Amino acid sequence: MVAECIPEDVIAGNPQLELRFGTNDDAAAEIELRRRVLAEPLGLPVEAVRFEFEARSLHLWALLDDALIGCVLFYRDSERAGRLYQMAVEPSLQNSGVGRLLVQRLEARLRELGVHEVRLHARGPSVGFYAKLGYAAYDAPFFEVGIEHRHMRREL
After folding, report:
1. What are the tens digits of pLDDT across the range 133-154?
2. Distance, CA of 57 to CA of 77 (rounded, Å)
3. Which of 68, 79, 105, 133 is spaced 20 to 30 Å from 15 by Cα?
4. E strands within the chain?
């Protein structure tokens, strides 16, 4: 676990920051991070951050001094497209650039794999974050896990 907030300039140029693809078999710390960041604030159980297709998903982790500080998953549901999901960054490091780095690295890997479209369900407060990264909202807002979401997508 990360102690105090680290400024963005430290994150961006920190040689101790590592982005690494992991596996579902080694995802205990990832699941705990997702539980604390995504489920707990909404009063949801850990099952709310578990998906049947996780074992077939890409797991990308951000590690700082070997501590997991962020993650994002991607499930390919067709030859050319799939869904980004379960993006979580340690609360003290949100707005530090970690999330942006995770999405950019994931997208680079997806291009290598021939993925052309990424879709996601953005929680209302996260819509602006994804919009800055080139994602566009489509369809009407909807409710998922008790809060408003938007469908968003981006062509790679």
Report:
1. 999 999 999 999 999 999 999 9
2. 10
3. 133
4. 17-22, 58-64, 67-76, 81-89, 117-123, 136-144, 147-155
Whether 84 is in a domain gets the answer yes
CATH number of residue 90's parent domain: 3.40.630.30
Q: How far is residue 66's CA from residue 5's CA, in Å, rounded to a whole number?
A: 17
Question: Looking at the domain assignment, is residue 47 inside a domain?
Answer: yes
Q: Which domain does 95 fall in, by range? A: 8-155
* CA angle, 139 then 90 then 134, to 5°: 35
pTM: 0.89
∠ CA(75), CA(23), CA(69), 5° rounding?
A: 90
Look at the chain and report how many structural domains it folds into: 1
Q: Is residue 1 part of a domain?
A: no
Q: Which of 59, 91, 53 has its CA nearest to residue 72?
A: 59
Looking at the domain assignment, is residue 125 inside a domain?
Answer: yes
Q: Quote the CA–CA distance of 81 and 88 in Å, as a whole number.
A: 21
Q: The tokens 């009407």 sit on which residue?
A: 140
What are 58-75's pLDDT values in tens digits?
A: 999 999 988 999 999 999
Q: Do strands 67-76 and 81-89 pair parallel, antiparallel, or not at all (unpaired)?
A: antiparallel
